[in-house]
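Support reply, case 0932

Customer input (verbatim):
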Amino acid sequence: MQKISAFKKLLLTIKPEIVYRSRDGKVIIKDQVENKRLVRVLYCQDVRESGIYLDEGMDRDPLFFYMQTLKEVCLYYSCLDNALLIGGGGMAFPKYYINGVPKGHIDVVETSREMIDLAEKYFFFAPDEHVRVIEGDGAAFISKTAISNASIADGGGPKHYNLVIFDAFNGNKPPKELFSEGMFKLTRQIMSSDGILALNMLNEKPGVNSMQTHLAKALLNNIFKHTKIVNCQMGWNCILLASDRKL
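Our regenerated output:
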């Protein structure tokens, strides 16, 4: 948590302060004022990838609307105490997840060592008994876990998540390898019988779901009993849910 003077807060309202810039200039972290509160935002190639408030609400109040929607999913549906997050970014969401599900555990798969280091240095992130970070490719992790589960003779398997979240992007597009029917089926294999899959999707424009969202929903309709699109506040994102439990 950071306390600043009213004068510095005014300056940051007018001109954000760059606290980190990568050598190639593609990754930038800025302190600025949003919603009349001091925030820290991570940009990748000018796309807002992650962000947190820097006041006493940093572990409780999501800065990004789609993370608020994901937190509400965790609060609304029961038995989501074992989660998997594909795409960590600044590692903001694990804080909100544990705040909402205090006894929960979340595995976070992040492909970039740089992002993990930046999250620890600039976004006050630290793995603990509730949060485990796995450096690697999300699709590969899901495939490996599904194969491991299938190798167990009784079908039990070592990994069954009751919440799986896809929040990985290449720029402003999710990785194609995560959004295939085969990958969705593998994901279902590492979920509990009433588990929920949640995909963070970018809308075409505020409140208008993209063709990719509709295509993903059509694929998921063939794998899960129920699907649901939840538009986030301001309408720039939506959360696509899929589960065998009623949504």
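We compared this against your earlier run and they match. Two observations from our side: Helices lie at 6-14, 65-76, 93-100, 113-122, 138-150, 181-189, 211-221. The chain has two domains: 6-53, 65-243. Please reopen the case if you see a mismatch on your end.
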